[in-house]
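Let us practice reading a record.
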Amino acid sequence: MISPHTREIQVEFESLWKKSHPDVPIKWINQGGSSDDLRFVTQQFASRGKDQSIGVDVFFGGGGETFAELDKDGLLAPLSSDFGVPAELNHVPLRAKDNSWVAAALSGFGILYNKPIAARDKLPVPKTWADLANPQLQERVELADPRKSGSAHVVYEIILQTSGWDKGWRILTGMAGNARRFTPGSSDVLQDVQNGEAAFCTAIDFYATGAINTAGPDKLGYIQPQGQNLITPDPIGVLKGSQNAANAQKFVAFVLSPEAQKLWIQKKGTPGGPVNNTLSRLPALPSAYGAKNAFTSLNPYKEKATVTFDSDKASRRRRALDELIGAALVDNLDAVKAKWTKNPSLDASGYVPLPEKDFEAIAAKWNDPTTASTQKQKWGLAARQFFSQ
């Protein structure tokens, strides 16, 4: 089982699974984050062949774009059912058309912040993604590298799609200009905000809720950006060539069962809920909502969409976009910050690396190693030239 899920999630699902399948143990694998897990799986298949076992049976968690890419590359086996998960939520797909993957849970994205630090230093609390580019927040924001963090990638894609390509890139530049650093994973940024080393960070909703539960609501707060709230799938699927295909399919059915779906939303210690930790997740099954022991009264199936998001576009360009952001902003962070400090203006210092149409054409050829290698070098050089001016 390869999964970017936290140990808390793994323990709760494994414990419930063992009650009905005591003779089928689970071995968990994680390469560091969903982007790293995806890279590991694709590399393993590339070296062995799409129909050969890579020693991993199930991919559990990692975001819709991760699974859309696995599906596009033909690396997923068909599932036995859609398990009652709706086809979409506010036009965002919750399962593949051929049932090669299905949402196991749902995720939202926002901003986690340290309340005492923000109050002490009289920092403006962001209400939108663009507010993270406020020059008053220089050295107070922390971000994650999308090449390592799938949740960070989704946030940056949301910003680009909801703000428009050019404006979105200027916002990303301002956010990078305010950043202390880009971390390898999304859990690192939360820890630094909790410790007070940073005041604000982007966060997936359940990571933020878990941090707030640990530190206390007087110390940490979570903001859903106004007009840019998006709920996306956190899927599960069976990999091609699985040597334990029957049990892998049973595990997927188990995760989508009413009993297992309760683990996501119910408070720990309640009947049918998790034993050790409240997981603070939104279930994929609509029937899982409304329980009196839930950690939240939110039901995303009754919420109206506040943004338009093209999931197909996002999945088509994922790898190329991660490398573009990496080459332009992450790898050039010192130069980005220097230019931003000198002139913290989105118009003057905001960087738009290339027109979106041109980028889409390059992304369509990203499977060609020469194209990918050449473009990363060109993007890095162009960004260095811009930020050195």
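A brief commentary: The mean pLDDT is 95.
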